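Hi Y.,

Following your request, here is the sequence exactly as I used it, all 136 residues.
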Amino acid sequence: MASLNKIFLIGNLGRDPEMRATQSGISVCNFTLATNERWKDKSGQQQEKTEWHRIVAWGAQATFCEKYLKKGRQVFVEGSITTREWNDREGNKKTTTEIRAFRIQPLDRQTERTEGAAPAAEETDPEYQDDENIPF
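Below is the corresponding structure, written out as tokens. Let me know if you'd prefer a different format.
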């Protein structure tokens, strides 16, 4: 039987992306994304809930995130849900669930640029491997 692990999110960055590299030199970038749900309760009062998502991007896409994304920016994220396990320094088992981003697209305009938002970054798209190929 077939299965599908795909998620689409639109939200705002909760903090600036944090870039690091693995021991083998692969770039990885992490940030949090807030999505909001709004509804009226039984008494007619407006309610709101914020859900926080951990986002991870790899390789050229991580570089894209570090360069173009900042706290508060609205972005579209396409990816899959993953769960990781590791042992902390005291040997305790830790687990986290995060979104492995395949595609990230800023949705708002950058305030420091008049021509609009940055291009989308797709994990499998070699077009954004270096700055010379970014179309602006």
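The beta strands are 7-13, 18-21, 27-40, 46-58, 74-87, 93-106, 121-122.

Thanks again,
Q.
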